[in-house]
# Entry
Amino acid sequence: MKINISGLSEGSHQYVLTEPAGEMGMESYFAGEVTANITLEKSIHQILATVNASVKGVFICDRCADEFSDDITTHYTAVYSWENAEEREEDDDFHLLGREDNIIDLTQSVREYLQLAVPVKLLCKKNCELPEHVRSAEPETDPRWERLKLLKQTEKN
Ligand SMILES: [Zn+2]
# Structure
C-alpha cells in the first residue's frame, strides 16, 4: 500500500490499490485482498489522504459458532505533512514527511482502521439464535419432575 509522491502535482489524485491481507500482516480472519480507494490532495505543505478500504473477513459466529463471511469496510483521512506547524504528535492520522521522502506507506493505517472496523459482537445474522441442540443441552429444571417429586412425597406421608 505505497504511493510514490515524487513529482506529484498540487491538486487531487485518485488511486486504487490492492494487496493480499496476509502480506499486510493482518489478522488471519481477513481473507483475500484488501482494496483501498485513495484520494490524495496535495497542497504546498501537506498531502491529505482520504481512504476507503475494504476486505473480506471470515469469522465464527459468537452465538451459533457457524462460520460466516462479512465485508469489513473503513473510511478515514490522514495528513502527511512536510511541516509540523501545530507541533502535533505523529499518530495514525498525522505523519511527518522528510524533504526527501517520496513514498507514502498506507499499510499500517489501513490495517489498523480495518481492524477497528471489525464488530465487537460477531453474529452471522442480525438475530442469530442458538441452535436447538445447544439450547436443550443447557441444564434446566423440568417443571414436570418437580410435580412428580411432590407427588411422591405426598404418597410417603
Ligand atoms: Zn450465528
User: Anything to note?
Assistant: Strands lie at 2-4, 11-20, 30-42, 46-60, 67-81, 94-96, 103-105. The mean pLDDT is 87. The radius of gyration is 27 Å. Helices lie at 107-116, 132-137, 143-156.
